[in-house]
Amino acid sequence: MRTSTKVKAAAVAGAAMTAVLIPLGGTSYAAGCNSTGCDNKGPMAMDCSDQYTTTARTVNNNNRIGELRWSSTCDAAWVRVYNESSNPVYNAYGYIEKYNSSGTLLRSLSVAVPSSGNDWSNMLGGASYQYRICIKFQGNEYPLKCSTKF
Questions:
Q1: Which pLDDT score is estimated for 131?
Q2: Element (H or E) spanning 20, and its range?
Q3: pLDDT band at 2; cut points 50, 70, 90
Q4: Residue 14 CA, distance from chain mean position
Q5: What's the rounded mean pLDDT across residues 3-11?
Q6: Which end of the chain, N or C, is more open, meaning fewer C-beta atoms within 10 Å of its C-beta?
Q7: How many CB atoms within 10 Å of residue 35?
Q8: Phi, psi values for residue 41, rounded to 5°
């Protein structure tokens, strides 16, 4: 093979390889989990918190706020919590609970309400289940407050 032919062949091969490696505009990337495969996985790490995520329920317990977040992309839910209180005591927890169709509690995950900013629990997944969120104070200063099931 002549040198100019080798150079042309290398250039064509290099261009073809580059085209394979560069994603096209509008390419969508799949979430890292779906349904019950999302159980106890982080919503951000699994790309489940996206434009299709909604707040299905909200609970306010003495300005400690919990939101039941639902991802239709991943068919999974989690609780996002934040503190709107002037008392920044780190003493409340947000819970997400997963129930079967008979109303039996299957699993619960929790996250501490931060003194500022927000935080979230890991997810519980599956569209055929029901979910609710609760805000509970560590020392029982205030009664447990929960959402209706979603």
A1: 98
A2: helix 3-21
A3: low
A4: 39
A5: 49
A6: N
A7: 14
A8: -115, 150
**CA separation for the pair 31, 44 (Å, rounded):** 10
Edge-to-edge strand list for the sheet holding 92-99: 105-112, 92-99, 130-137, 145-146
Q: Is 48 exposed, middle or buried (0-12, 13-18, 19+ CB in 10 A)?
A: buried
- Least Cα distance to 59 among 74, 45, 69, 49 occurs for 69
Calpha distance 99→110 (Å, rounded)? 15
Classify 138 as helix, strand or coil: coil
In tens, the pLDDT along 52-63 reads 899 999 999 999
More confident residue, 113 or 27: 113
Give residue 83's identity as a one-letter amino acid code.
Answer: N
Residue among 77, 136, 129 at smallest CA distance from 112 = 136
CA–CA dist 132, 129 (Å, integer)? 10
Residues near 78 by beta carbon (within 8 Å), at least 6 away in sequence:
43, 68, 69, 96, 109, 120, 121, 122, 123, 124
